[in-house]
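Support reply, case 0932

Customer input (verbatim):
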Amino acid sequence: MFERFLSSGQVEQPFADSVSLGCYWLTRLNSHPVTPAMVDFERWLLEEATRFGAASR
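Our regenerated output:
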């Protein structure tokens, strides 16, 4: 999450230890139709995740 800041020297990691918090899922109820806003949000989220090298589907 902070690789960009660490590599640029903007922040420093004070300890060698790191913690993985797992993955996140974008979900919706099947009983609700997909809205244009949901599609736009998913597209934006995937673009941002790809930009930071975190996207996997």
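We compared this against your earlier run and they match. Two observations from our side: The chain has a mean pLDDT of 84. The helical segments are 3-8, 36-51. Please reopen the case if you see a mismatch on your end.
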